[in-house]
Amino acid sequence: MSEITTSGPSDSALEIAAAVRAGERSAVEVVDAHLAQIEAHEPAVHAFNVVMAEQARAAAADIDARVAAGEDPGPLAGVPVALKDNMCTNGVPTTCSSKMLDGWKPPYDATAVERVRAAGAIAIGKTNLDEFAMGSSTENSAFGATKNPHDLNAVPGGSSGGSAAAVAAGFAPLALGSDTGGSIRQPAALCGVVGLKPSYGAVSRYGLIAFASSLDQIGPFTRTVADTAALYDAISGHDGRDSTSIPEPMEATVPHLDDGVAGLRVGIISELFSGELASGFEPEVLAQTRAAADALAAAGATVDEVSVPSTIYGLSAYYLIAPAEASSNLARYDGVRYGHREDGAANTGGMMTASRTAGFGSEVKRRIMLGTYALSAGYYDAFYGKAQRVRTLIINDFDRAYADYDVLLSPTSPCVAFPFGAKSDPLTMYLNDVATIPSNLAGHPAISVPFGAGRDGLPVGVQILAPMLKEADLIRVSAVLENAAQESAA
Amino acid sequence: MSDTIKPAGNSTDDVGVLDADGQPISSTQLGEWSLSSDIPREETTLSGDWEMVIGLEVHAELSTNTKMFSPATNHFGGEPNTNVHPVCLGLPGTLPVVNGKAVELSIRLGLALNCTVQRCVFARKNYFYPDMPKDYQISQYDRPLNINGWLELPSGYRVRVERAHMEEDTGKSTHVGDSGRIHDAGYSLVDYNRAGVPLLEIVSHPDVRGPEEAKAYVAELQQILIATEVSDGKFEEGSLRVDANISVRPAGSSELRTRCEVKNVNSLRSLGRAIQYEAQRHVDLYESGDKPVQETRHWDEEGGRTRPGRSKEQAEDYRYFADPDLVPVDPSPEWIEEIQASLPALPRERRAALVELGATVDAAVIAVDRGLDSLAVGAIEAGADAARVLSHVANNLAVEGAASLDSDRFAELVKMETGGDLTATQAKTVLAELLVSDKSASDIAAALGFEAMDTSELEGLVDRLIADHAEEWDRFVNGDDRERGKMQGFFTGQIMKATKGQADGKVVNQILSARRG
What we know:
The complex is a heterodimer.
Chain A (H helix, E strand, L loop, with lengths): L12 H9 L5 H19 L2 E4 L1 H16 L11 E5 L26 H8 L3 E6 L33 H8 L5 E5 L6 H7 L2 E4 L20 E5 L2 H11 L29 E5 L13 H16 L3 E5 L7 H16 L18 H12 L2 H13 L6 H24 L2 E5 L14 H5 L6 H6 L3 E8 L5 E7 L5 H19 L1
Parallel strand pairs in A: 2-3, 2-4, 7-8, 7-9
Antiparallel strand pairs in A: 1-3, 4-6, 5-6, 5-10, 9-11, 10-11
Chain B lengths: L49 E12 L38 H13 L3 E2 L4 E5 L9 E5 L5 E7 L5 E11 L3 E5 L10 E5 L6 E7 L6 H17 L12 E11 L9 E6 L2 H20 L7 E6 L4 E4 L12 E2 L10 H10 L4 H10 L4 H9 L3 H9 L4 H10 L11 H12 L5 H13 L4 H7 L7 H14 L1 H9 L2 H18 L6 H12 L1
């Protein structure tokens, strides 16, 4: 097993920011250290589509100048952040790891990108993903797969595999990913880092290239829970450019890092732990989930199993809703205005067809076809309509569970990082998302926290779920698990 | 159609529209409208025993500063692709945000059309077309903003309005090549200035029975759009566009047969012609044992015919679904009430006000169409004769700036005319001057040296004319009504020529009648 040891920068984002704000470390030096780590290991990992070395150094110099002038550049001052390559960056190529958008440069920044910059963070590169965020292994990238820094023969998970790998490999302390059905939490679990999918509407989607609009949500990857809290606090909040952005003020999570879990009611989702569905999960993953529950109980929480019956229908509903929305969202890539265009067609319609045929990879085409079918006249009620009703059932089930429990617990992924090509059958691959999808369908927040090791010593992630806008509860539980994991490893 | 126009003076409460010389204008020149208790409908203009069934879809561009979902400017014209923004270009990652002003204007029109305003949902209408930046159009499908209204025609007939929903406009393609058509174009250019401009689509029930009724419906809707300041309603700039769904059926039946949607109708006149052509085409098909197929057809103005649109290999399926990027719009009852209270007087109410003052419906239609009804009301209330006021509105005031004419100055002119101080021709000259100067009517008349000829002088002139034109006089005295009318025109014309328009046409007619005995 070949592995990238974290011989590079291992300081947390908050440690770096504190030093930069105090004038003890220069942002330029921080950026250079991370660029050196990237130079050493990026060829093996392939976390990035673009490394923004020059822009990052210029931004770092600016941060240093502001510190020297007595200004405070913000809570993430001088901290490198890797951005999933489906977030628009003004003047910097944004490709969604698709041939379709190869070389396309947006004329604007995504809101989340604006906000991390406003907090003083420094964009260091655009990370690889499954094409248009469709996949669970980053093998669907048109530009080649990303490798898991813990095992270069294994996938990093996906679709935000590049962001997860970048953080795990020490290329950046912070990364942003997007999560439509688990695309932050599953790669976080497989790469042994923290990954948070915020409540739907907590972080603006403006500038996030849409996969499935009603499910997509931007969120942080970090190595520590505290860093996730700080990054979430920096990017969340209302944005008038996104109509689905929640207008109410959002609670800051950093102040809750040390709240502990005494008296907190934790429910283990039985369908994802002891039920038939979980019988296919790796035993080490289930054992670590049990160990995490025990750790929470030891810290004063009450822990029980709770049934959330409709979660077992989540996968089916998701694979109708997400492709349906994608089929419409991806219609605009037609070769007319930007992106890939095939020449030589006899007419405009022919040009569109040829451009889409050549520009999209096979998984994207598969989902466009699924979604087009699901929305077709005569099939709408049987497929898309029914899937939306399942969504309501799942929300109702969660609401019932949350009447008795403050947070829910489950494995994040059925398995640890798997070898490249191991799940070439799409349906086997889709099963990876079974534990993460229900939160997207409900719109609720959920987090994956590293907790011990599984098969072959690879990292295991456990998932904590909470009701809408209860990110602070996810953070306080995660902080307890982080401590417990460190103690048991020590 | 019934005779709605009576000679002026026969009745004090039925003032017809008069021409410059005080003669009635025939009703057919104004369209076939009338006001009566049983509301006569347009008679069929089809061969055989068939009637038309017409539903109208009108697209109106809303008069907002910015686009429906984008901060880009909503402005007609401009260099191609200058009124654009990442959002209305549909660039990856962009999201739509509803323009509140567009919602307000849409509610305004909905209320003016007596609709129920409801919580509504935006839906995506999916189809590939190069002038549509996202390859879907944001529209409304099963939950439109306005439903179940009606529009009352000047005849009093009410056409039911099924819905009036919000959507975004598309861009415009130009096909460069020999034919200007897409099929054999060398290349195509797309201008997205119009893409995302807010539209209101107003859909009627198939309640319209003929071309004139269709024209009346669209004309009335146009008036309402302009009066409520929801849209500038300009056909020529494309801010008003009409599609007609046309079918025919045996007269008196209630069935609904296969319809064709006719597009590319760019004026009221085209609308009437297109409907007549298309309906007759259906009749001809049925009568030859064939039948029409449901399709979209384009009106060819030059050829005076409809042609099939681009051929569809398969049935259209727009795969509508609620747009997940937008949230439902739920107007509060307070907001709706506020908008209702801010509605101006509608054309229907303004016509009624004029009719109340003695105008005919036809005269009121013209005055309101031209936006001259408040001028007319002001002048009549200042004591001017209603018939003369409306005659001037119909004949002499179809000019820029007429609406800003002071009604008291206008009233003075009309009073001078009816008092015999000015002939009709002189009054017309003075009126033209009133529009461009600050002087009073009497000052203008004095400056021009206008004074009416006295009656005895005119009598002498008439007698000489009769002597010189014995044959015409004989036709006037002994001819039928038509002949008499013609000869009356001849003698009046000769007198006007001899007096250089200074004679009073009404007095001339009185003298002619007296001489005829």
